[in-house]
Write a structure and sequence with these properties.
Shape: globular
Number of strands: 13
Structural class: alpha/beta
CATH topology of the largest domain: Nucleotidyltransferase, domain 5
Distance between the termini: 19 Å
Strand content: 15-25%
CATH architecture of the largest domain: 2-Layer Sandwich
Number of domains: 2
CATH class of the largest domain: Alpha Beta
Strand order of the largest sheet: 3-2-1-4-8
CATH superfamily of the largest domain: ATPase, nucleotide binding domain
């Protein structure tokens, strides 16, 4: 009997990552392509479909296809897989992404928000599995700030699939930077890689480095301006996490994405601010809570790194196969 396998797609603003997957944490094979946004959404789908069809031609003879999963920037209208006014994908508003992919590959496609699939992977095989929790929040700090929620074993979508947009919690509501969502002062404008680069230009002028990674190197070398920018990131995250923790009292909040590599630069400020802002966190912080491990609020760096989104996309078809309603049903750990 052939082993089942899936193909997952991580649709990013810079790169397309497509992988064939069978089980565990490892991929059978991975394809990485530039996301050619400048050529339009149809070309991006064609690039994606060409890679998917290539992987199917390679693995269908030896494996049983379970389906295709796609993690996409949102907001998304689910389960139809329609992109609605995405801040970081100009020109994609109203695009029927799922239908466009299915037309070119001839295989059922499951669409989810990119942060939702990262949360799914962390819950299935990452820190969620390690701690044995049924609920968690995942913040992904990349080009923007995505967020995914697993609540009582379900991906939380809200009414239309647009729920859980913690990246657009307003952390500076009155004089904050304009956001691509149409609002002002969103967490995304103070904790994403794009935001860090902007704040560096604003505060360091011609001395600003060209990337957040280089800024982190400067901060580690003792540059006080660089350190202060990451402290701003920590304060913004604390405001966003305060809203999440006070409302939902989750046992686990994870922070991933490229910016999380600078954890040691923003986390001390983040935790200090959280203690002063969130009474729920003060009462349930692991180092102070006396009510037992099961009732603690843990905030940690995500475990799966850059593979979380792609791995979660690969897991989606298997979840759909065991769910009463794809993209909305109760999940079961693989």
């Amino acid at each position: 009997m052939k082993q089942p396998y899936s193909i997952g797609v991580d649709l990013g603003g810079t790169n397309l990552r497509i992988a064939a997957y069978a089980s565990g944490r490892e991929f059978l094979d991975t394809v990485v392509l530039p996301t050619r946004l400048e050529l339009g959404r149809d070309q991006v789908v064609r690039d994606m479909a060409e890679a998917i069809n290539g992987l199917m031609a390679r693995f269908n003879p030896t494996h049983q296809m379970a389906g295709i999963g796609v993690g996409s920037p949102g907001p998304l209208e689910l389960p139809e897989g329609i992109i609605r006014n995405p801040p970081n994908l100009p020109g994609w508003d109203g695009f029927h992404l799922r239908a466009a992919i299915e037309e070119q590959v001839g295989v059922p496609v499951c669409i989810e928000g990119d942060a939702n699939v990262a949360a799914l992977a962390e819950w299935q095989v990452g820190k969620g599995l390690h701690y044995g929790v049924e609920s968690l929040c995942m913040l992904t700090l990349g080009t923007g700030v995505g967020s995914g929620f697993i609540l009582n074993g379900r991906i939380w979508h809200g009414v239309t699939g647009m729920g859980g947009e913690a990246g657009h919690i307003q952390v500076h509501p009155y004089q904050g930077a304009a956001c691509g969502c149409g609002g002002f002062g969103c967490l995304e404008q103070y904790a994403s890689a794009t935001a860090i680069a902007r704040m560096a230009r604003e505060q360091m002028g011609t001395q600003a480095p060209s990337s957040p990674h280089m800024l982190a190197t400067m901060a580690h070398a003792g540059n006080r301006q660089a350190q202060q920018i990451f402290e701003q990131v920590g304060r913004a995250l604390a405001v966003g996490l305060t809203a999440v923790i006070n409302m939902l009292n989750l046992p686990l909040c994870l922070i991933g994405g490229g910016v999380s590599d600078a954890w040691d630069l923003f986390a001390p400020t983040m935790f200090a601010e959280l203690r002063s802002r969130s009474y729920v966190y003060r009462l349930t912080e692991p180092t102070r809570c006396i009510c037992g491990e099961a009732l603690q609020t843990r905030i940690e760096a995500a475990e799966l790194g850059s593979n979380a989104g792609l791995l979660g996309a690969c897991l989606l078809p298997f979840q759909a196969a065991t769910s009463d309603a794809p993209s909305t049903g109760v999940l079961a750990r693989a």
